Amino acid sequence: MELPPATQRVMAEAARLGLNVTPFVYPDGTKTSADAAAAVGAPISAIAKSMAMMVDEDPVIVLMSGDRRVDAGKLAGAHGGSNGRRATLDEVRRYTGFAAGGTPPIAHPAPLVIYADVSLRRNATNGCGSPGARRPPSSRSSWMS
User: Fold this and answer.
1) Which residues pair with 50 in a beta bridge?
2) Residue 28 — very low, low, confident or very high, per pLDDT cuts 50/70/90?
3) 89 phi and psi angles, rounded to 5 deg
4) Strands (DSSP E) along the chain, which ranges?
5) What confidence tier does 134 reach under pLDDT thresholds 50, 70, 90?
6) Pairing label, strands 48-55, 84-86
């Protein structure tokens, strides 16, 4: 089975960065953190989700555990801005090159500021990916290594 073009782009960038990433495809999909956790047999907290956000006019990516939500006000303060919000679908595509819901922490058209929430430290490893191709948590390297 051939991987979707977006997944191929992420794999190419991961290889360029020296990351060892192996995607797995789940026919039932993994659109939510709960879906991903069920698919890989892990707690929701072990799923690393990426959220495309805007702080004032700056696009940023927030990596966090699947059981947490972004506090837009705290994000704005951490970034030195005044207003934080979730990016629109058009903004996600424009700034990341990916569709909302499948925004990886790498392979963007231009460098983006990425914030990693401390909630990711609760698990030794974290799995992440796109709605259908996701890397399960394991003791091997992950996108968060």
Assistant:
1) 63
2) confident
3) -60, -40
4) 24-25, 48-55, 58-65, 84-86, 113-116, 128-129, 133-135
5) very low
6) antiparallel
Domain count of the fold of the chain: 1
Record the tokens describing residue 97, joined without a space.
């090159």
| pLDDT higher than threshold 70 for residue 115 | yes
Asked if residue 145 is part of any domain, the answer here is: no
Instruction: Report how far residue 108's alpha carbon sits from residue 70's, in angstroms, rounded to the nearest whole number.
Output: 21
CATH value at residue 126: 3.90.960.10
75 burial via Cβ count (<10 Å: 0-12, 13-18, 19+):
buried
What is the biggest distance separating any 2 CA atoms in the chain, rounded to whole angstroms? 46
Neighbours of 66 (CB within 10 A): 22
Q: Is residue 143 part of a domain?
A: no
In this prediction, residue 36 has a pLDDT band, given cuts at 50, 70 and 90, of confident
Whole-number Å distance between alpha carbons of 113 and 18? 20
